């Protein structure tokens, strides 16, 4: 769970950026790999819309882009995917987004270094103001409010958000960073404050991870 959302360096030869473009997922959805590919395509389309127009974007602004990207998908499946993207964008529109979010940078590639361990990731949105900053990561999982906390725990999303925040803290030399996950399906957030104490915890975990790797135990410690 510690490494959710990250690539470790050094990369393998021929390693490509792990950021997915909509076209890659459309090819899978058009070719018959329905469930996982369609869910991935929905997530990619929502992220692309937010990258272009920011969080809270209305469907009317994004509709023509989504239609164009879905052009090669089977018409029956296209309707289902379109409806899912539409619903998530409407949920996102109803969520309250701080002013700082609209002024932030979108789709920011980051590095996080802990001793001999280097992690690479991509944050959906970052912002900074004075000694404070924040990150937002959008989630399009099909999840209810009652199951949300279990999903966060089981997928390690809480660690992912904190590590993204630490990457921003390290890059901008900030005192505190607010880490936020925005779950569009239930229209809810989960948030954490990341400071030096949190940073020390993850440095210790990184050292433990490297020790386990050296011993041939590849699982992350948390």
| Cα separation of the termini | 6 Å
Spatial extent as radius of gyration:
18 Å
Give the count of helical stretches: 8
Which shape, going by the Cα principal axes?
globular
| Quaternary organisation | single chain
Tell me the β content: 15-25%
The main β sheet shows up as: 6 strands, mixed
- List low-confidence stretches: 8-33
List the helices and strands in order. EHHHHHEEEHHEEH
- Which structural category do the helix and sheet elements fall into? alpha+beta
Helicity level:
40-55%
The beta-strand count equals 6
Q: What number is the mean pLDDT?
A: 82
How would you explain this protein's 3D organization?
The structure is a single chain. By secondary structure, the protein is α+β, with helices and mostly antiparallel strands. 48% of the residues lie in helices and 22% in strands. It has eight helices and six strands, in the order E-H-H-H-H-H-E-E-E-H-H-E-E-H. It has helices at residues 22-30, 35-53, 59-69, 75-94, 99-102, 148-155, 157-172, 196-214, and strands at residues 7-9, 105-114, 117-129, 132-139, 176-183, 188-194. Strands 1, 2, 3, 4, 5 and 6 form a six-stranded mixed β-sheet that branches. A hairpin with a 2-residue loop joins strand 3 and strand 4 (132-139). Helix 3 packs antiparallel against helix 4. The longest helix has 20 residues, at 75-94.
